[in-house]
Amino acid sequence: MQAKFAPVFGLLLPALVFLPLLAFLPFEIHGGGWGLIANFFGAALRPSLTPSLLASACSGIAITLAVALWSWLLSLVIGIGAGLLSAPTVSEAFWGCRWPADLLRRLLALPRSLHELLWGLILLQGLGLQPVVAVVAIAIPYGALVARVVSDQLESLPQAPFQALRVAGAPSPAALLTGLGPSLLPGVLSYGGYRLECALRSATLLGVFGLGGVGADLRLSLQSLQFHEAWTSLWALALVMFLLEQGIALLRRRWWQPGAVVGQRGRELLLLFVVLLLLLFPAAQLLDLQWQVLLGPWHWPMDQQIFQWQAWWLPWPQLVSSTLLLTVIAALAAFAAAPLLLLLFSPWALMQPLLRGLGLIARLLPPPLTALLLLFVLKPGLLPAALALAFHNAGILGRLFLEGLEAQDPRPEQALLAAGVSSRKALLMARFNGLAAGYLAYGAYRADVILRETVVVGLVGAGGLGGVLLEALSSFAWADVLPVL
Asked: Fewer CB atoms near the end CB (10 Å): N or C, the chain?
C-alpha cells in the first residue's frame, strides 16, 4: 500500500513551497497599488468597445496569429526533418552508424536551450525591426523541440515492421514511411497541435517586447494604466485561444477515437493541410515578410570590445543560484497549484468551471505582464517574478491535470464513495493516484521550460542570468552577452 501511494505524495509534496512564499509575502507587500489591481480586474467586466480600439485589437490579433502560423509551420518542417535525421534508427538505416544522429541531437540542444525571446532580441540586433525576426525567433527553438520529440517517439516505436521491410529488400525511405510512419503520425499531430497553442503565446510574448501584434498593445495599455483598453485585447485573445483549444481537442477526438475511419481521417488531414498552406499567403502579406533580409548584411558589432575578457568576470555563483532558485520556486508552485486547489475545494467536478476560467486567464497573460501587475503591490525582486512564472505555468499544467482527471476511469472513485470514503480521499486514492506518474513526468519537462522563461521576467529585478542578459542586449553590450549565453 505504501508503494501505491508514493506517486500521490509526489503530487502533494511540492505544495510545501507555498509555506515560505506565504511567510515572506507580508514583508514584500507595499500599500499603494491595491486600487490599481482592483481597477484592472474590474475593467474586465467593462472593456472598451470604441470602434477604433476594436479595429486595433483585431489588427493586433491578426498579426499575432500570422506570426504564430508561420513560425509554427516552419518549426514543424524544421523539427520533423531534423527529428528524422537525429533518430539513431534512421541514421543506421541510411549510413550504417549512429554517430551522425548522436552528433545532431547534441547540436540541437543549443538552439532549444535559449528562449524565443532571446532569439528575438539577438536577431533584432542583427536584422533590425523586421517581421521575419519574430517568425524565425519562434521557429528556431520550437523546431529543435519538435525534433527532439519526433526523434524520441521514433525510437520508442516497435521496430519489427521496419526491420521486416528492410529484410525483404525495401529501400530505407519506403521502409521508414511504411513501417514507422503510421505509428508516428498520431503523436506528431497531437504534439503539433500543442505547439500551435504555444506559438500563439510566444507570438504574444514577443509583441510585449516590441515585435508587434497584440502583445505590444497590451504592454502600452498596461503601462499607461488604460485597463479597459487592455481587456479589449485580452478578451479578443482569450476568444482566439479558446476556439483554437476547442478546435484542436475536437480534431484529436475525431481522428484518434476507437473506430475512426482511416480513409476519412486521411482526407480530412489533407484538407486541413491545404487550408493551412492557403492561409500562409494572406498571413505573409499581412506581415510583409521579406525573407531576403536573412541573406542580406547582418549588422553585428565587429569592434574589439566584444572580446573583452573582463566581461567574463561576473558574479557567477550569485547569478546561477538566483536563476535556479527562481526556477525551483516557480516550478514547484505551478506544479502543485491545481492538485492543491482541487483537494481544498472539493468536490472537484464543481470546481472545474472555476479552475478552467482561472487557467484561461493564467495562460492568457504573458509572465512579463503579470509581473508588471504584481509590481503594483509587491516590491521588485525574486518574489513577483516567481509568482508571475508560477501563475502562467499553473494555467498550462492545470489544464493538463483536469484533462487527465476526466480521462480517468470513474468506477474506482465511485466504489470508494459507495464504501463511505470521503470525497477528498476518494479523489486522492482513485483519480490522483492513476494520474500521478504522467503528471510528474510532464512537470519535470515544464520545469525545463520555466528555466528558459526566467529571462522574460528579468525586467522586475529578479536578478539571475536573465536580468543580466536582457540588460546587456538592450544596451548592445555584446561583451556581456556572450559569457551569459
From this structure: N
- What CATH number matches the domain at 1-30+305-485, 1.10.3720.10, 1.10.1840.10, 2.40.160.20, 3.50.30.10? 1.10.3720.10
CA 437, CA 1: separation in Å to the nearest integer?
Answer: 16
* Cross-strand bridge partners of residue 29: 378
pLDDT tens for each residue of 202-225? 888 888 777 778 888 888 888 888
- Beta-carbon contacts of 296 under 8 Å, excluding residues fewer than 6 positions away, are 127
Q: Is the pLDDT of residue 390 over 90?
A: yes
What confidence category does residue 122 fall into, taking pLDDT thresholds of 50, 70 and 90? confident
Q: What would the mean pLDDT of 385-397 be, rounded to a whole number?
A: 91
Looking at the DSSP bridge assignments, the partners of residue 140 are: none
pTM given for the model? 0.82
**Residues for the chain: how many in total?**
485
Peptide bond between residue 347 and the one before it cis (omega within 30 degrees of 0): yes
CATH architecture of 47-293: Orthogonal Bundle (1.10)
Q: In the predicted model, what is the mean pLDDT of residues 293-309?
A: 65
